[in-house]
Specification:
Length: about 280
C-alpha cells in the first residue's frame, strides 16, 4: 500500500470524492492531502496574519522560530480560515456528525519539528486510556504551508501510525504540497516538519538528548517557512478533552486568559453549524 501511495501519490484529494472514499483513506493511513483547498484571495488574507504590523508584534519568540499559539483567539479575521468553505466541506466528509473546532490554532514562522505525535504524550487525552484504540477518537490537525513544499519544507508522516503509541511504527513518507494545499492528519499520527539532515554521529547524540527529554536546540531553517496549524474533531469526549488541554497549554504563553474567542469567529462557527468549546 505504501509503495502505491508514494509512487502514484494517491493521497491527494480534491474534496469532491465520496465520504466513504475519504474516510476509508484517512482512517487507514491517518492523513490526506487536500489539493487547492484555498484560492489566491484566501492565501493573501492568510499571509496578512504574519505580515500585518498589528500581528507582527504578537509573535512570541521561540528561537529560532516565532509563534502565535491560540492564533484564532488573538489574531483578527481568523474566521476566514477556520470556516473556509473547501476546508469545512472535506472535514464534513472526514468527521461523522457535527464538527467541533478545538480552538487549537498556531501560526509558525521558521519552526522546525522532529518526529512526534500531537497527543501531548497522552496529556491532551488525559483521563482516557483508550484513545489509540477507540474509533470514536477522531481529532484532526490541518497543516497549511504558505509556500510550495514540492521537495522540502512540508510535512512527513509515518503511514498508519495513528493506531499505536509506538513512534517507530510505519513507513516514512514525505508529502509534497503546493501553496494553496492543506494536509489533514490524525493528531495521533507520528509526523515531522522540516529537520536538518544530520550525519550519523549527530543523529545519535540528538536521539540520546531526546530520550532523556533534554531540550534539543531547534534547527535554524535555510529558507522562509510560514505555516498554520489548526485542529478540529468529532463532537465527543475525546475532542473535548483535547480542546481543554490545548487551551490550557496555549494560555500558558500569555499573561492573560485568551480562551474567549472573538465574536466574529463565534458568529461564523454558528452559521456553519460548527461546535466550539472556547
Ligand atoms: O513544523 C511543521 O511543519 C509541523 C508542525 C507540527 O507538527 C506541530 O506544530 O505540531
Ligand atoms: Fe505536530
Amino acid at each position: 500500500m505504501t509503495d502505491k501511495i508514494i509512487n502514484k501519490q494517491i493521497f491527494s484529494f480534491t474534496g469532491t470524492e465520496s465520504k466513504k472514499e475519504i474516510q476509508n483513506f484517512i482512517k487507514k493511513n491517518g492523513f490526506l492531502l487536500v489539493k487547492n483547498c484555498f484560492n489566491q484571495n484566501q492565501l493573501e488574507e492568510f499571509k496578512k496574519f504574519f505580515e500585518s504590523p498589528e500581528n507582527k508584534i504578537k509573535f512570541i519568540e521561540s528561537p529560532p522560530a516565532k509563534i502565535i499559539p491560540g492564533a484564532s483567539h488573538v489574531v483578527k479575521g481568523f474566521e476566514k480560515l477556520i470556516t473556509a468553505p473547501n476546508l469545512i466541506k472535506i472535514l464534513n466528509k472526514i468527521i461523522d456528525g457535527k464538527i467541533a473546532y478545538t480552538s487549537h490554532s498556531d501560526l509558525h514562522s521558521g519552526l522546525s519539528t522532529g518526529w512526534h505525535k500531537d497527543d501531548g504524550g497522552g496529556l491532551y487525552f488525559q483521563g482516557y486510556s483508550d484513545f489509540y484504540t477507540n474509533d470514536d477518537c477522531s481529532v484532526y490537525r490541518v497543516g497549511i504551508y504558505l509556500r510550495d513544499c514540492t521537495n522540502e519544507g512540508g510535512l512527513s508522516v509515518k503511514v498508519g501510525s495513528h493506531d499505536t503509541p509506538n513512534r517507530d511504527f510505519g513507513d516514512e513518507l514525505y508529502i509534497p504540497s503546493k501553496l494553496g494545499d492543506a494536509v489533514i492528519f490524525d493528531v495521533r499520527i507520528t509526523h515531522k516538519g522540516w529537520t536538518k539532515n544530520r550525519n550519523l554521529f549527530s543523529e545519535i547524540v540528538n536521539k540520546i538528548y531526546r530520550k532523556f527529554k533534554k531540550n534539543t536546540k531547534r534547527d535554524k531553517l535555510p529558507f522562509e517557512k510560514k505555516s498554520i496549524f489548526l485542529a478540529y474533531g468529532a463532537l465527543n469526549k475525546f475532542t473535548e478533552i483535547y480542546s481543554i488541554k490545548n487551551m490550557e497549554k496555549q494560555n500558558k504563553f500569555y499573561d492573560e486568559d485568551i480562551s474567549s474567542m472573538p465574536k466574529s469567529l463565534e458568529k461564523s462557527l454558528k452559521e456553519n453549524n460548527i461546535h466550539y468549546f472556547f
